[in-house]
## 1
Amino acid sequence: MSGENHYGEGQDVFERVRAMMQWTPQGRALGLEVTKLEGAQVWGRAPYKAEFVGDPETGVVAGGVITTFLDQLCGMAAVLAMREPAVVATIDLRIDYMRPATPLRDVLAEAHCYKIGRNVAFVRAVAYEDTPDNPIAHATSTFMVNAQRPMGANLREKKP
Amino acid sequence: MSPQQRLADAIARIPYASFLGVRAELKGDELTLVLPYSEHLVGNPLLPALHGGVVGALMELTAITQLAMSSKSTKFPKTIDIGVDYLRSGKPLDTYARAKVIKIGRRVANVQVEAWQNERSQPIAAMHGHFLVADEEKTPA
């Protein structure tokens, strides 16, 4: 995607993308952060907190935390790949777990939207503590592009 | 201790389940995980819609809890992989999930999960996953 202009370039993009993360209540609840952007790639951090532990015997963070983190980061990479930012919706998300996350350590991740079309964006991501060559999990995902629906759409009753 | 009580205890032992607010309901041998709606679970505040990751997390927890019930092991199974299909936007309502264990092998279990809100016949997401239920015996070096 090099040579093309997309949302993930320019002056205040970093601030806008950070604001996107803060805009999501679940992102705030997990304390997710964006740390770096480059084209249609985004790097982030999910801080370790005792309340996110999934296995009390080992102190390992729940898979669900990594699922949410990677879903969020993949969606952001899809938005970054666009010329004009638009809402995306996850179609499908597959996560392979190579090993448990290390207790007491933050989880880092990077996501890359390697193809975007008019309708669908394809994104890969990897989660790790230090470097991607020692991964905790890999994610492959697809997103609907321009999944914009009217504000409050989910509050309305279904049409009869 | 009743199976319902044992299940409630197992869920209560998982800090992340409390963070989400998940509770378990057991009718006979049929387990349903319930995720009451809460503002902190939202991904898109304009619609508003539940975060897809949260729905995925609920289904993974359902699979793990169902497997822990089906096997005698006191250890939680480990996730090998999950694939989540998102079918409908998660509304600001309570969400339910139920798992079907397709096969438990010696080491790997294959599980399918569905999540829904108002209508069981209108699932908001479906998951299939593989879980490690037992470690290969560690042989002394």
Note: Chain A has a mean pLDDT of 90.
## 2
Amino acid sequence: MTSYIIKRLLALIPVIIGVALVVFLIVHLIPGDPAQTMLGERATKEAIEQLRESMGLNEPLYVQFYEFFKGLLSGDLGRSLMSNNPVLSEISVRFPATLELSFFALFFAVIVGIPAGIFAATHQNSIFDNMSMLVALIGVSMPIFWLGLMLIWLFGVILGWLPPSSRLSVGVDLHFITNIYTIDSILTLNWVAFKDAISHLVLPAIALGTIPMAMIARMTRSSMLEVLKQDYIRTAYSKGLQDRIVVYKHALKNAFIPIITVVGLQFGVLLGGAVLTETIFSWPGLGKYLVDAIYARDFPVVQGGILFFATTFVFVNLLVDISYAAIDPRIEYS
Amino acid sequence: MNYMKSLRILVVMALVVALFSFAAFAQDEGQYGGTFIFGRGGDSVGLDPIQVTDGESFKVTQQIYDTLVMFEPGTTDVIPGLAKEWEVSEDGKTWTFYLREGVNFHDGNPVNAEAIKWNFERWGYEDHPYHIGGEFTYYGYMFQDYPGVIQEVNAVDEYTVEFVLTQPQGPFLNNLAMVSFGIASPEAVKEHGEDYFKNPVGSGPFKFVEWRQGDRVILEANEDYWGGRPYLDEVIFRSIPDNGARYMELKAGSIDMMDYINPEDVASVEDNEDLDLLLRPSFNVGYFAMHQDFEPFDNLQVRKAFAHAINKEALIGAFYAGLAEPAKNPLPPSIWGYNDEIEDYPYDLERAKELLTEAGYPDGFEFDFYYMPVPRPYFPQPKMVAQAIQYYLSQIGVTANLLSYDWGTYLDKYYADELQTYILGWTGDNGDPDNFLYVLLDQTQNNCGYENEELHQILLEAQKSVDKEERTELYKEAQEIIHADVPWVPIAHSTPPLVKKTMVKNYIPNPTSTEKLHRVWLDE
């Protein structure tokens, strides 16, 4: 197992070099000029030329790639062309926000999606089954921005139960350590901030978690249905085992591999795809930041951000693969 | 029609509200205390005003920094700032500023002639050790290079600073009032170097406390502000990117004020007695440009026909929620030098068709028409405006193919003179006519293939004069020439709406898009 993990980690190196090269080329070859975007409507040709020169954009591409890659090796992703902020410092503030939101969204998706899927499978073709699969269908097709605005309107404005957006209320103090606010508030034993941070997480987590929830519910249902039709389940029932034990101990464990795969993939997607939710809920995460950078042609930020996402995605996949072995003893890695 | 009427009432009421809050300022002493939370569409890029070009950065730096001179609340007239008075030599090349005494930066260091000199040298001299951390874009832009027209800055004594220019610059004083030229504490810049933009220190009414990137900027009152202690204890700028979500936050009460409301929400502000609508005086122009390098737009008759074919009033009613006025000049009416005697080409389809026939296109023609992919204050809904213009032009038999690019590429193609016809606009910088007329339409500057030597000479002459009356006459003449040549069809000057809670008092929007908040107070 250990050697497998080391092998996988070593395989990261060519992946990252490949991603770095592809991202660099894409970013530099698409039309649009950061100098122009930065100067906006107000720029003479000379001003643009001067700005390009001082940003180092007039160097040949291979020189720029060499500089970028040299920095990468020493852990330096460069500075944003727009704000001059080091890219790594921006990522270290924004990625925890995205991670926290994605985690809570996935938590919501799992605790609702899996039980709903199991129940639907064990009560196949009942009203509940049909209803829950209808809800799941709606969930999969619901536009996030619409759902998000409706949640804000209902729970934030009309009922006033939950804060409409952002991560922390004005006036609530918190000492930032990891920039994951729930963890920081636990570390500093700041329960006011903890409660406040959780209340800010509820609406965006539901908005972001709805699509994964629906996908997980559907996958759980179909995977369970398949397993429940197997001979050994019939055997278990004929031995006189209780329903609960058959479903949870015998069936679910075997149905879990595809579910874990979906959960892992969804987590990867959530980490990179929370842009809309981040926009609607004013969540200062990495997705929104990266999209803004793409529009501004802020090369170092786009390169650094995508590289970071790619690496995270590879890690999540690795975790998923390892968890297969933990769930199913028949799977072994060497 | 009813819609238009109710809009008109709405606008009048908003103006009344604005007047009332102004009156409140005149009569009423404000209340001290409270936290004012402003909801805006994006985060600041940086808090060193000379390094940034975006409005969201300027909103904040306006509070932290002072400039030598500044804009009077609600106008672009220049009033004293850090300098209490000034004079200019007869040849217009030497300006002397007399500073307020006893003003300190937030870090306790004095604001004196040496500090002013140090700031200008940092901005203007590319070999200055602290000319780092960015591009100093607006310096080069307003003073025409580095160091550009500012030949030298001298500290005559502790509180007297003298600027020697290479040539007279008409808009010099207006330039100095721009938020970009906020004076920073030299010691703070030296201490933080490239990271100064995250640790701003000025002498303005509010001090920097904290910046949570992508989320909020927190400022606190400067007890020792030379203009009097601000009424507010704390100001927070929150980034809430989605217009709809931001409006909901305002209704939920978690912010006190916002900008960039969706046009369709404007009417509901009126139904809400806890909210007021304020209109920012227009400082922009949105226009439809016809590039004369492409046939048939080199033909004046064709351009005139287009000017007659577009119904500006209807566009404004439909796509600006009425919060704009039709444009007949490139210059917005809030700026001095505006020529109100010019008569716009009336909306007249018959006349437009006649002109097309005279030009030799009785059956119309087909062409490419580009629209911006992003909303800007002067075109809140560019795609819809473009579709409407396409429709108007189809009425005179002309077929426009609607096209767009992403914003970066769009500007790229615009500067490369590749757009046959397009919509675009401009928001002013310094409240000087030169900043619209020269920058947008001079033959050395424009991107619509427009050449007119007479106009060029007039604009250059006005640039070199420091006599405001003489300049006003020159700019009025320039607007007549532009009107006759029709390089564009000017569409609208928008008056961007701001929405605030009624308890927010004495907020006076400035045309230049930012204002100091030290006279704003909360009626709690």
Note: Chain B touches chain A through 50 residues (CB under 8 Å).
## 3
Amino acid sequence: MDKVNAQNERRFTVPSCHITEDESEVLAEMEMPGVQREGLEIKVDGSALTIEGKRSDEEPKGKWLLRERSRRDYRKIFTIDESIDRDGISAELVDGILRLRLKVKEAAKPKRITIG
Amino acid sequence: MDQTKRERSTSLDIWDAFDDLRGELERSFGSFELPAVPGLLDWQTGPLIDVVEGDDEVLVLVDVPGVKKQDLELSVTGSVLSIRGDKKQGEDGKGRKTVRRETWAGSFSRTLSLPDTVNPDRVEALLKDGILRVRIAKREEARKKTVQISVK
């Protein structure tokens, strides 16, 4: 009944993000310890950029003496605007940190005007 | 909200009672998720740790995303494990405009008191995918043993 439904529903942890930008790109660094390349899924659907990361480590057996870490998979959904080039998104995963680079479209970059 | 009464569980397990309570609260107030954006009270300043005691060893799991091996220092004194480290801010963050920052950086130190059955001479540590795993073996005499007793 209610209990069964609550268990079937997948719950996620929202990874902590550090987002920086300059004129040409936006860099989002997300902390996803326990996720390997194979467990990572990044997709763009319209203005929604979804990042999902499955944990690769299995639950240890025994008596829990301290439990602070989350065992849930990660999910983060960003809303990206038109200035982001959909084909210019690149990602790398190093030591549990996902670095996502979003290129800004040429047309959206600030133009320098030289005074003649 | 659900108006029908739920059947009382026949089990006397206290955890079932907690599950029921949690279910009631979740239906009334929404789920117990941590907020998507960390606020003042849940701002994290150190790594999160799990400690699991198995039959033969004690396993310590520490979330240290982005921390390099050389920036971690571990020591065991008796049954006390200390973990020190330095979590650096991503290099790419320098000279750029920060839009949002939820991650923490800086040095940290955690001291854990483990069960006194651990053997401080047999410790193994492995850093992989941003998780530090420390396995500390239990002393032989502390392990669970099954002794066959023959009935005469």
Note: The mean pLDDT of chain B is 80.
